[in-house]
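Input record, target 12 of the design panel.
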């Protein structure tokens, strides 16, 4: 039978910073996991561990970290992860979901991190830092574990905050490395048939960022792969549901593992670009075998590891939950909402950018900008962004003079206002915008040469625009991240701009083309400009835009996405009698599609007919609840948008929230939509926008609600309250 060691249970006390921890009662734990534990002993130990984890923390909602002999413990009020120290190359011992009362024990005796053939671990070190709350980040505790494997130094930083049932792990490498394990996985069809236990072993290992091997065969797993490059892709989410069996690899940034016996599980989030655009990609993000789950793909190769500089691999986030799918998604979203604060005056926006009408830079000048501001004010726009053409340098997309992004800084005035178009600089535009309550933003394309070697100049140019004009919102376009050095330099650029703008800068990160950050990298810097769609090319269909937002919103915070609505009166002849043409929807409906996200008016305000300006009344009502709507957990409801569905979104808060419901081109006047509410709950619904009626209703199976809308292509925005 396994020997039981004793350690002082200090898991619920923050670091004492020089003061001795309070005296507490020893709690038995076992320091090594053995396969011959009896069920009775296992159950007994599990009960003790859960009891200890339930002890209230001395500091309300506090995070804690403690290295005691051979055991490292990290946690908060929601989650605890315990490790065997192993000279710094830690091995997960247990994972606890405190709120759900569930504990998992790791059956694997190998370290969580693997990069090359086994070499003795040396120089294990441990320290803890507390990152204070600032304008962007909430307070975070960082447990820094470092060690050496031969000539390679490894630093693992475990980040935890008080609001989320998750722990993020950042990995940094420095030193010398001959190679990184990571050959492409074997095809199961090339394996021999299984007749003996030995046949089940799969040869070869891939570099592993994190891993767990948990009890049970009854796992339900889902991986989610994401696609950006939206100029070429219009199907942005791919789900893969499976039951784990023999060792197999999977693609995606997300893995959800649900144990049917415990009705609980965990998620693994790989903070990286989409699988198709990751660096040093070996063809897989996860390997799964029964209850063994591993995250693969470091995002760097051996040549990227330098002797004198720490190089960061992709971050892995591990979160726990108990219950069904909503709890799973809530655990993920709660973490995502801690990455960057969503401040009403800085991050919430109803932006107008004129590029959607395809004039490119032909009209951009002082007079045009001032006229656009007047139209924007009538629409209720909060941010007017001047796209390509405001600057002296000419880009390749210029309609006036084909320019170039090559050697941008050979022209030191490239990122200064065009003296011909803006003879008074941007000051008159900014001044008039302030008078109308509209913030000015600009388009910016960082200089790509030599892996963004001029990142400091780019950052200084943006910081100077902030100092001169107060401009802090920049659409970042034209990115290409083909290697690690490019990623490093872009990160330095973003951080420098934040530093020089007192963390006030907001970057709209264009996801339309090239190798970029996708939906899970650089998310602390702003929001995502999702897609270019144009009536000129007949590729703007409202239901397709709605579908992209609807699918992404399950796994990506909707409030982090800029979603476009266009001038539906342009190019109507190109659509002919198409039933899904933009002209078949009201302008208010097109705006409503964007409300769960950050609305983007992708048109010239001066090109709208007079009737379009009536939208300002709806925008004004929306802005009153925009931040509160985005404060909730926004998830899709109803059917997937198809142009003929009942569909929408729910913003979930404690005992209240919002619904946006769309009746697409369907003859059914009443839709039954499954929601994220429990069954048999009485709620009151109050219409805020659209044509729905106030009512009290009790939810049906899977939280279903009945919503009536009188005409096709109509919508309603409700606030709801759960009645006691």
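The sequence produced for target 12 reads:
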């Amino acid at each position: 039978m396994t020997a039981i060691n004793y350690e002082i249970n200090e898991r619920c006390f923050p670091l004492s910073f020089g003061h001795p921890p309070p005296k507490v009662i020893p709690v038995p734990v076992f320091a090594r996991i053995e396969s011959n534990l009896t069920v009775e002993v296992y159950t007994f130990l599990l009960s003790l561990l859960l009891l200890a984890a339930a002890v209230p923390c001395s500091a309300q909602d506090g995070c804690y970290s403690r290295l005691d002999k051979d055991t490292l413990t990290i946690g908060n009020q929601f989650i605890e992860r315990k490790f065997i120290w192993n000279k710094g190359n830690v091995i997960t011992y247990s994972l606890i979901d405190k709120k759900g009362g569930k504990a998992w024990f790791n059956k694997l005796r190998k370290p969580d991190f693997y990069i090359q053939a086994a070499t003795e671990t040396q120089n294990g070190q441990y320290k803890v830092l507390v990152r204070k709350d600032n304008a962007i980040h909430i307070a975070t505790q960082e447990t820094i574990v470092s060690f050496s494997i031969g000539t390679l130094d490894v630093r693992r930083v475990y980040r935890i905050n008080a609001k989320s049932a998750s722990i993020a792990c950042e990995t940094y490498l420095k030193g010398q490395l001959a190679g990184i394990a990571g050959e492409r996985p074997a095809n199961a069809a090339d394996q021999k048939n299984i007749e003996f236990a030995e046949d089940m072993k799969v040869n070869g290992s891939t570099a592993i960022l994190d891993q767990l091997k948990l009890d049970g065969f009854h796992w339900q797993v889902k991986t989610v792969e994401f696609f950006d490059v939206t100029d070429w892709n219009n199907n942005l989410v791919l789900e893969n549901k499976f039951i784990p069996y023999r060792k197999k690899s999977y693609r995606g940034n997300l893995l959800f593992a649900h144990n049917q016996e415990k009705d609980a599980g965990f998620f693994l989030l790989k903070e990286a670009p989409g699988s198709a655009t990751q660096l040093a990609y070996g063809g897989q993000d996860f390997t799964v075998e029964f209850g063994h789950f591993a995250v693969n793909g470091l995002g760097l190769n051996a040549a990227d590891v330098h002797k004198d500089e720490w190089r960061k691999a992709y971050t892995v986030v591990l979160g726990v939950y108990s219950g069904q799918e909503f709890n799973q998604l809530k655990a993920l979203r709660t973490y995502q909402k801690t990455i960057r604060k969503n401040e009403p005056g800085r991050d919430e926006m109803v932006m107008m950018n004129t590029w959607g009408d395809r004039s490119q830079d032909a009209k951009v000048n002082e007079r045009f900008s001032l006229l656009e501001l007047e139209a924007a004010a009538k629409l209720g726009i909060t941010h007017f962004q001047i796209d390509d053409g405001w600057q002296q340098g000419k880009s390749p997309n210029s309609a006036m003079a084909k320019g170039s992004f090559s050697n941008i800084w050979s022209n030191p005035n490239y990122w200064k206002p065009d003296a011909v178009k803006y003879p008074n600089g941007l000051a008159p535009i900014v001044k008039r915008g302030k008078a109308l309550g509209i913030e000015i933003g600009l388009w910016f394309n960082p200089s790509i040469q030599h892996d963004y070697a001029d990142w400091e100049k780019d950052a200084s140019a943006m910081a100077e625009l902030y100092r001169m004009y107060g401009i802090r919102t920049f659409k970042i376009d034209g990115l290409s991240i083909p290697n690690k050095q490019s990623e490093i330099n872009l990160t330095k650029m973003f951080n420098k701009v934040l530093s020089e703008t007192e963390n006030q800068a907001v970057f709209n990160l264009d996801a339309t083309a090239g190798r970029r950050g996708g939906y899970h990298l650089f998310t602390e810097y702003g929001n995502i400009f999702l897609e270019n769609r144009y009536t000129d090319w007949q590729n703007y269909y409202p239901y397709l835009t709605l579908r992209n937002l609807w699918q992404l919103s399950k796994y990506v915070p909707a409030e982090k996405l800029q979603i476009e609505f266009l001038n539906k009166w342009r190019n109507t002849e190109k659509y002919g009698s198409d039933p899904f043409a933009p002209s078949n929807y009201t302008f208010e409906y097109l705006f409503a599609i964007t409300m769960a996200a950050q609305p983007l008016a992708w048109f010239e305000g001066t090109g709208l007919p007079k009737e379009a300006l009536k939208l300002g009344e709806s925008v004004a009502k929306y802005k009153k609840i925009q931040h509160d709507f985005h404060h909730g957990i926004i998830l899709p409801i109803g059917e997937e948008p198809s142009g003929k569905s009942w569909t929408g979104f729910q913003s979930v808060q404690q005992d209240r929230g919002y619904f946006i419901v769309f009746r697409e081109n369907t003859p059914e006047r009443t839709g039954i939509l499954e929601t994220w509410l429990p069954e048999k709950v009485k709620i009151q619904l109050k219409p805020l926008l659209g044509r729905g009626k106030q009512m009290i209703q009790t939810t049906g199976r899977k939280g279903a609600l009945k919503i009536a809308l009188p005409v096709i292509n109509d919508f309603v925005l409700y606030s709801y309250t759960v009645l006691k």
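Residues 1-43, 50-60, 186-191, 199-204 have pLDDT under 50 and may be disordered.
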